[in-house]
Specification:
The chain is an alpha+beta fold. The chain contains nine helices and four strands; from the N terminus they run ααβααβαααβαβα. It has a four-stranded antiparallel sheet with strand order 1-2-4-3, with helices on both faces. α1 packs across α7, α2 packs across α7 (130-154) and α5 crosses α6. The two termini are 29 Å apart. The protein binds flavin mononucleotide. Flavin mononucleotide binds at residues 12-13, 15, 68, 160-164, 190, 204.
């Protein structure tokens, strides 16, 4: 079996991690690089990754993830944030910095305005509310999250996606621990627990291809 297929086979939603085993800085970097290099709509990279290693903080987070043991037993817990709609207006520093990266003359304010406006025109046509823009942004973060889990599996590291968390309470914890962080500008797309399994996984349950594919 090729290495990528082996990684897909290896990955499962790990429910209990070995608390004594830590992910090395090189492996953690490889996981984060997989997130960073992910594709995103318009290349907006609307994500930010908060990496939690602190045991006390992981304990607090477990409480607001419905007491799921993965959250405190994992080596590293990554909170995948999405940028909210207010970061994609013509005046927003984030949108302006993204479009500026692609310009030959990075001081050309007219070119920056035009590039921002072209993106905003798309938003206006395709997304009719801030909620729709938030959703669009959050979807990109799922792509980065998936790539991070696959990269981890490639390196023999287990993971569990954690969608079961209390959004408001997690935002409060982040506001308390990260200077200048605001829940006005970021939402939480998904959390990812990474570490090393204690138990062997059950066999994957999946539909056969013929049930989920249509070939035209
Ligand atoms: C968006 C998302 C949210 C999830 N949330 C949780 C969660 O909160 N807790 C958990 O144990 N597993 C969670 N999972 C893992 C799924 O339950 C798991 O992937 C699915 O049951 C298939 O099992 P497998 O990944 O082991 O093949 C989540 C998966 C996804 C994609």
């Amino acid at each position: 079996m090729d290495k990528l297929s082996q990684a897909f086979n290896f990955r499962h939603a790990c429910k209990q991690f070995d608390e004594k085993k830590k992910i090395t800085p090189d492996d953690l970097n490889a996981i984060l690089e997989a997130g960073r290099s992910s594709p995103s709509s318009f290349g907006m990279e609307p994500w930010h990754f908060v990496v939690v290693d602190n045991p006390e903080l992981k304990k607090q987070l477990r409480a607001i993830c419905y007491d799921q043991p993965q959250v405190s037993s994992c080596s590293h817990f990554i909170i995948v944030l999405y940028r909210k709609a207010n970061q994609f207006t013509g005046q927003s520093n984030y949108l302006r910095s993204v479009v500026t990266r692609g310009l030959a003359n990075k001081d050309d304010q007219t070119a920056i305005d035009i590039a921002c406006q072209s993106f905003i025109n798309y938003c206006t046509q395709e997304m009719d509310s801030d909620i729709a823009i938030d959703h669009w942004s959050e979807m990109q973060c799922y792509i980065a999250s998936t790539n991070m889990m696959t990269a981890a599996a490639y390196h023999g590291i287990d993971s569990c996606a954690i969608g079961g968390f209390q959004q408001d309470r997690m935002i409060q914890i982040l506001e308390k621990n990260i200077p200048q962080f605001s829940g006005q500008s970021f939402g939480i797309a998904l959390c990812l627990a990474f570490g090393y399994r204690v138990n062997q996984p059950k066999e994957h349950i999946r539909w056969p291809l013929k049930k989920i594919c249509t070939f035209l």
